[in-house]
Write a structure and sequence with these properties.
about 180 residues, mainly beta, 2 domains, three-stranded antiparallel sheet
Length: about 180
């Protein structure tokens, strides 16, 4: 989600991306009143309407929650996971998507029209709580990514959603319970 959550891995050089330095997680008072842990849970929601600090029973209704793993310093990132059945068709093109544009730099992109299926937090039928699928460069839905670059991490292919994901989902981070939540807009 890009807000100091699961970013500070060992040797990252990002010593400031720990929970104690995240302003979203260090709210002490609201409107001059000390926060009560009985009604306020440390965390936040992010949507196209904005960022809301603090989790309550009311603002987390109807969320699907995924338990996060713990790493040495923070809750680990969650990925939207994919498990390809066969090779993902792609083409090598000039990189005009990343800024600054570097003349002559090439990248692989998934072919337009390729139907991709993803799952939260895993594409496997067991353990996944939701699915997300689309055709590359299909403009039917606002949440479609502008382009898709095939990347495989140690944990397998994943999707870095970008902000367009928020046209379809509202996401939440429960810093106390180590949970990532989402619901349809």
């Amino acid at each position: 989600m890009g807000v100091s959550f699961g970013r500070n891995i060992e040797r990252s050089g990002l010593s400031y991306t720990i929970p104690s330095h995240n302003p979203f997680l260090n709210i002490k008072t609201v409107n001059g009143k000390k926060i009560s842990n009985k009604t306020y849970r440390n965390g936040y929601t992010i949507s196209m309407k904005g960022i809301f600090l603090g989790l309550t029973a009311k603002n987390t209704e109807q969320y699907n929650w995924v338990k996060l793993d713990k790493d040495k310093r923070d809750w680990a990132m969650t990925y939207i996971q994919a498990y390809p059945k066969g090779n993902i068709p792609n083409v090598t093109v000039d990189d005009t998507f990343h800024k600054p544009i570097k003349p002559g730099k090439k990248i692989a992109l998934v072919n337009n029209g390729t139907h991709l299926h993803f799952g939260f937090p895993t594409a496997a039928s067991k353990g996944g709580v939701a699915k997300y699928d689309f055709k590359v460069r299909d403009q039917k839905f606002k949440s479609q990514p502008a382009w898709v670059q095939p990347v495989t991490l140690k944990s397998g292919p994943h999707m870095n959603t970008g902000r367009k994901f928020l046209w379809t989902f509202i996401v939440a981070f429960d810093a106390m319970g180590g949970r990532f939540g989402f619901k349809w807009c």
